[in-house]
Write a structure and sequence with these properties.
By secondary structure, this protein is of the alpha/beta class. 49% of the residues lie in helices and 18% in strands. It has a 4-stranded mixed beta sheet with strand order 2-1-3-4, sandwiched between helices. The radius of gyration is 16 Å and the shape is globular.
Length: 134
């Protein structure tokens, strides 16, 4: 039987696990690469499995925010909708609260910051998350 640790890999994720369990909500962000979120976020989410084996309700009812940027001009052809579907499945699996999304085009460094509507959506996501965790 496995010891009561979140993961047998003794790395920096041990600290992150504790913070994730203690969090009132979570905001995840990623660029879209090849029609889904990036590999780093995939590995991070994959490692939630270790938490769920010990504390299955670690995100139950907690709100989740997702921020995505992509190089295409269309959310559908960019692959962001694929990522959104995966986040919905992930949220269902961890029993999280509502999932809120912000997404938009950002081809070059600084593009997102220059997009006033995207920045306003991000600000509103922050406000919404703050309200939901009160």
């Amino acid at each position: 039987m496995r010891k009561k640790v979140f993961c047998v890999q003794q790395d920096d994720m041990q600290d992150i696990y504790a913070k994730l369990v203690a969090a009132d909500g979570v905001i995840l962000a990623s660029p879209i690469y090849w029609f889904s979120y990036n590999a780093q976020l995939k590995v991070f989410i994959d490692r939630w499995y270790g938490i769920a084996q010990i504390q299955p309700d670690f995100l139950k009812g907690k709100p989740m925010g997702v921020i995505l940027v992509y190089g295409d001009t269309d959310v559908f052809t960019s692959g962001a909708t694929n990522a959104i579907r995966i986040f919905e499945d992930t949220a269902r699996w961890v029993k999280s609260g509502p999932v809120s999304y912000v997404y938009g085009t950002a081809n070059d460094i600084g593009d997102a910051v220059k997009d006033a509507a995207l920045m306003e959506s991000a600000r509103k996501l922050g406000e919404k998350m703050t309200e939901m965790v009160k």
